[in-house]
Automatic annotation (TrEMBL):
The keyword Transmembrane helix applies. Keywords: Membrane, Transmembrane, Transmembrane helix. This is DUF1206 domain-containing protein. Residues 30-93, 115-178, 203-271 form the DUF1206 domain. The lineage of its organism: Bacteria, Bacillati, Actinomycetota, Actinomycetes, Micrococcales. It comes from the Bacteria. InterPro entries: DUF1206. It comes from Arthrobacter subterraneus. The chain crosses the membrane at residues 32-54, 74-96, 117-133, 153-174, 205-226, 246-267.
Length: 274
C-alpha cells in the first residue's frame, strides 16, 4: 500500500509539473483568445441582425462563420487545442489549488474552476465538431427542452438551469460594475491602455450578464408555459431584445458589449494570473 501511495504521488507530481510548464501555460492562455474570438464573432453577427441583416447570433453561428473563412479549419483546431488546454489547466487547479488559496476558500475556488473547466471543455468539443465538418442548431436545444418538459423532473431541472443562468448573469453584471474582474489579472498595461482594458472589461461583463439574464428568463418562461419553441438559446435571447421598445438600439448596444468582452478576453490571455 505504501508503494502504491508513492507511485500515485509520483504521478500526481508529474501531472502538476506538466500543467505548470511554460508550453502548457501558453496553450492554456490561447483558450482565452479562442473564447474572445467566439464572443467577437457573436457580437458582429448580432450587430448585423440589429442593422436588419440575418444570422445566428450564438456559438453555432460564430463557429459556422469561422469555418467559412479562409484558413477557418486551422483556426478551429487551434481554438480546440487552446480551450482543451485551458480546461485541463483549470482541472489541475481544482486538484492542486494555488498556495495563495487556503482554508475554506479552497472549496469555493474548486467549485468555480471546476465549472469553468466544464465550460471550456464543452467549447473545445464544439470547435472540434465544426473543424471536422459538423454543425449545430437551435432546433437541438428545442428538442432537448421538449423532451425535458414532458416530465415533472425535467421541468424542475429546466427551471433550476434557468435560475442558475440568471444567477450567473447577475454575477457577471456585478463583476463588471464593481471592477472585480480585474482580480484575476496579474497587472495590466499602464496609462490609457490600462484604462481601455478596464473599460472593455466593464462594458463586456455587463453586456454578457444582460445577454445571459435574458437567456435564463426565456428558458424559465418557456418552461412555465410548456412551450419548447421559446427555448432558442442565446440567438433567440438576443433577438428577443428587438421586440422591446428601442429594441434595435438595445440589441446593438449589447452586441457591441459582447465584442468588448471578446476583446477583453484576448487581453486577459496575456495578463491572466496562472
Amino acid at each position: 500500500m505504501g508503494e502504491l501511495g508513492r507511485q500515485a504521488r509520483k504521478v500526481a507530481d508529474g501531472a502538476e509539473e506538466a500543467t505548470d510548464s511554460k508550453p502548457f501555460i501558453l496553450a492554456a492562455r490561447a483558450g482565452y483568445v479562442a473564447a474572445g474570438l467566439l464572443h467577437i464573432l457573436i457580437g458582429i453577427i448580432a450587430v448585423r441582425v440589429a442593422a436588419g441583416g440575418s444570422g445566428s447570433a450564438d456559438q453555432n453561428g460564430a463557429m459556422a462563420s469561422l469555418a467559412g473563412t479562409p484558413g477557418g479549419g486551422i483556426l478551429l483546431w487551434a481554438c480546440f487545442i487552446g480551450c482543451s488546454a485551458l480546461a485541463l489547466f483549470l482541472l489541475s487547479e481544482v486538484i492542486f489549488p494555488p498556495k495563495r488559496i487556503s482554508g475554506k476558500d479552497k472549496l469555493k475556488f474548486r467549485l468555480k474552476d471546476g465549472g469553468k473547466a466544464v465550460v471550456y471543455a464543452a467549447i473545445g468539443i464544439a470547435f472540434a465538431r465544426y473543424a471536422m465538418g459538423g454543425s449545430g442548431s437551435s432546433s437541438s436545444t428545442q428538442s432537448t427542452s421538449a423532451a425535458l418538459m414532458a416530465n415533472p423532473a425535467g421541468v424542475a431541472l429546466l427551471l433550476a438551469v434557468g435560475a442558475g443562468i440568471f444567477v450567473v448573469a447577475g454575477y457577471f453584471i456585478y463583476r463588471g460594475a464593481t471592477g472585480k474582474f480585474e482580480d484575476n489579472l496579474n497587472g495590466k498595461p499602464s496609462g490609457s491602455a490600462g484604462r481601455a482594458v478596464t473599460m472593455l472589461g466593464t462594458v463586456g461583463y455587463v453586456a454578457k450578464g444582460i445577454a445571459l439574464g435574458v437567456l435564463g428568463l426565456l428558458l424559465i418562461i418557456a418552461t412555465v408555459k410548456n412551450n419548447p419553441e421559446e427555448s432558442t438559446g442565446l440567438d433567440g435571447a438576443l433577438k428577443s431584445l428587438q421586440e422591446q421598445p428601442f429594441g434595435i438600439w438595445i440589441l446593438g448596444a449589447v452586441a457591441l458589449g459582447l465584442i468588448a468582452y471578446g476583446l477583453y478576453m484576448i487581453v486577459r490571455a496575456r495578463y491572466q494570473r496562472m
